[in-house]
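Appendix B, Record 12. Input sequence as logged:
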Amino acid sequence: MDSSERRKSGLNLPAGMSGTSLRLETFSGSYRAISNLSSPSKSTSCSDRFIPCRSSSRLHTFGLIEKASPVKEGGNEAYFRLLKQELFGSDFGSSSPAGQGSPMSPSKNMLRFKTDHSGPNSPYSPSLFGPDSGFSNEASTPPKPPRKVPKTPHKVLDAPSLQDDFYLNLVDWSSQNVLAVGLGTCVYLWTASTSKVTKLCDLGPSDSVCSVQWTREGSYISIGTHLGQVQVWDGTQCKKVRTMGGHQTRTGVLAWSSRILSSGSRDRNILQHDLRVSTDVVSKLVGHKSEVCGLKWSHDDRELASGGNDNQLLVWNQHSQQPVLKLTEHTAAVKAIAWSPHQSGLLASGGGTADRCIRFWSTTNGNQLNHVDTGSQVCNLGWSKNVNEIVSTHGYSQNQIMVWKYPSMAKVATLTGHSLRVLYLAMSPDGQTIVTGAGDETLRFWNVFPSMKAPAPVKDAGVWSLGRTHIR
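Logged structural output:
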């Protein structure tokens, strides 16, 4: 076609191409553009892009076709085919089995744009692996095995005359690694490093020990008596420093802050004592309608939590003689109280037989954050300072000791061994060992928490040999 003919046709065709190269043929009433690319000598059509014919490509020369792997006897070829189908679409998975297809006839889906038809409910849908799914390579690693907690105590002490009374607090472990136990009318000190037992005091036949509590420094110990007195003793020299009155009847619970000693009694009152002043009582907190049996200062000394036989959990601050929070969700006596050492204003409490629940509170706004039904009377709570876990001791009906992860409240371990209610709990200064006491007149030592520096699994072998000895 010369230049004049090209101008008449209105097409800008390359030289050497005639207008007859483009023609329309009719097939059943429809028009299609025929492009014959078999030979350059024959008529050809022009297009704006080049689309190769995959059937004539020698893809096997470049290793682009998956070679069939030998199928072992009992192999899982069907599983891999199903997996490919789920990941890459039904057309991919329906390709010919290995060994049956020709390398000159690759899959028709290769490099083809297609719509993804995989259903959203497919567990292998590619959308599950998207950046918004939260899936990462870490999820493919096997989960870390749970920490193993020894199921048996590594030491047992006989504690004759240890009372089976829910409202008393007769065991405490000092920061200097000395365990104090109230047995009848006497208080005994057991030095953990040497197993030496020392008799601190004897209140005489007219009185008895109802509570013991070390100062945070571990040098002085306070003793609450059945007659309502609060005595303070020097634990190293075994000398009485002071005796303070004020309660009408037994003093069943004590709690030290950095400077203030708080005492709770059956007379429903909480008294504040300060050894730096001459008066026995510096303030009186009135709010409970029944015996006060739980008392704990927060770690920053700003708040005092108290629990009573009136099912109330009250929170007090340093500047008011009225409770700033009244938490009444428990349906039984609240003896078990623990502050979180990891989060300010986080408080845990446990209810008695009719309640059986551990509840978590934010003292900032008074909201209940969570609760879990343990199935048994909650006698004590202890919050680990090494890891964010809680230990609880229980009474009716299973007399067990339980370790929980916080905040999931997944059970780490359940320990049994006491034959009566596990009424007493204290934690070693290193935070790894707990001691539990019960009305069966035994003290049992358990390794339940890892060390703060190396959170390795706790081993059964402890610093004490397994055995049973007497505390007096």
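Residues 24-43, 95-106, 110-139, 459-466 have pLDDT under 50 and may be disordered.
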